[in-house]
Known about the structure:
Elements: H1 23-36, H2 42-56
Amino acid sequence: MPAIDTDPSIPSIIPAPMPEMSDDECLARLARAVKDHDVSQLDEVARLIGRLAVPIE
Length: 57
């Protein structure tokens, strides 16, 4: 089977691992990111929402 050549300039759809944190810390980071209205933090906002959605279900 041929090796898969990955181009580092193409963003991955696989999320970066989230550091272990409590639900409260996760909520606080999400609140700060939303309050800052920083478009560069959209990936982190999505990861934080996903991290919180699992315990809620």
